[in-house]
Amino acid sequence: MPRINFQQQLVALKDKLLAMAALSQQALEFSVEAYMNRDAGLAAMVQEIEAAINAAETSVDEMAYDLLAKEQPMAIDLRFILSVIKINGDLERIGDQSTNIASRVIALGNQPSISLPIDLETMGYKVGVMIRRAIQALLEGDSGLADTVLDMDDEIDGMNRAIQAELVEVMMQHPHVAEQCLNTIIISRNLERAADHATNIAEDVIFWVRGSDVRHKFSMLPSHEERTLPI
After folding, report:
1. How many CB atoms lie within 10 A of CB 129?
2. Rounded Cα–Cα distance for residues 202 and 76 (Å)
3. Which of 66, 154, 183, 202 is most enclosed, with most CB atoms within 10 A?
4. In Å, how far are 19, 52, 124 from 35, measured between CA atoms?
5. Backbone φ and ψ of 74, nearest 5°
């Protein structure tokens, strides 16, 4: 009976984390939409969502640490709880990046939207895909899906570099749009950081499922445990 109760608590912990993940994903998507439409109201909504994300982070951490202290889990259960704690932090930081983007939108105020030779919307969409895949990988315990998130990270890094280089060139040729270009560079950088956090989440899913730390290419435990996930 105690073991059954512990597994139920692990499921409850996972559900809490997934609810927080949904908020972080929504915040990122709203922030990009707010920029594309210069929607200050939607940007303000992102800031409200961040408050909910922060509260959720505290709740998840408290439950995870409580399980560590009281249950003293071993093997894959221990890896799951440790992964939850790390993923929790990355989800909170995705919320931070989204809020930073929203702040840039508000800073742009009533300035007219100008056509810039970049595709920030596609970059935002792809970062959103990374977050959704990382969350889905967590939901299903699918390390293969998590691998696809890692594969996308270099593409986002390249898009960020290309956007920054292009906008620096625009500022040199058209100084009167420098403020808007600078804000867009900051937004691009925040999207790139959000992608990094999605990558971190995917790495933690792989650690939970396979027992492998892919950041350092170091296999810690046999991969056969992937077939015996507890939740």
Report:
1. 15
2. 16
3. 202
4. 25, 21, 10
5. -125, 165
| CATH code, domain with 76 | 1.20.58.220
Q: Does residue 157 form part of some domain?
A: yes
CB atoms within 10 A of CB 48: 11
- Between the alpha carbon of residue 97 and those of residues 63, 104, 187, the distances in Å are 25, 11, 9
Model confidence pLDDT, tens digit, residues 92-142: 999 999 999 999 999 888 777 788 999 999 999 999 999 999 999 999 999
The answer to whether residue 229 is domain-embedded is no
Establish if 91 belongs to a structural domain: yes
pLDDT at 148 over 60: yes
